Amino acid sequence: MSSRPTYSDEFKADAVALAESSGRPLALVAAELGISLTALKRWIKLSHEGHEGGGRKPDLPVDTAKYKAMEVRLRELERENEFLKKVSACLSPKNNGR
Questions:
Q1: What angle do CA 22, 6, 25 make, to 5 degrees?
Q2: What letter does residue 1 receive in the DSSP assignment?
Q3: How far apart are CA 29 and CA 16, in angstroms?
Q4: Distance in angstroms between the alpha carbons of the first and the last residue of the chain
Q5: pLDDT, position 37
Q6: d(CA 91, CA 85)
Q7: 9 pLDDT exceeds 70?
Q8: Are 9 and 53 in contact (CB under 8 A)?
Q9: Residue of 7, 79, 91 whose CA lies nearest to 46
Q10: CA angle 26, 31, 56 (to 5 degrees)
């Protein structure tokens, strides 16, 4: 079982710079550097997104309990907004002339 090779951030940045400045196909640049085309494409994408760290994992999602609590609070605020809309409609000057 082989382990995945790891590359320094400097190597990744140099590979991206070479791929973007050489004008050669990405597959050729990747082969010359001894890396996979997929890795080079991922590094380029991360570079454009501003994640110079290379293989950084995305942030973890919000935990389930917090998410459910936020959903409950959202429903509560929506009900309050509906109530306030009805109250303001009743108190508006247009409706006072009835």
A1: 20
A2: -
A3: 10
A4: 83
A5: 94
A6: 10
A7: yes
A8: yes
A9: 7
A10: 70
- Distance, in Å, from the CA atom of 89 to the CA atom of 52, rounded to the nearest integer, reads 53
In terms of C-beta density within 10 A (0-12 exposed, 13-18 middle, 19 or more buried), how is residue 13 classed? middle
pLDDT at 31 over 90: yes
Q: Helices marked H in the chain — which ranges?
A: 9-22, 26-33, 37-48, 64-91, 93-96
Q: What is the mean pLDDT of residues 33-62?
A: 76
Share of the chain above pLDDT 70, in %: 82
Question: Running DSSP on this structure, what letter comes out for residue 58?
Answer: P
Amino acid at 3: S
Distance CA 95, CA 31 (A): 75
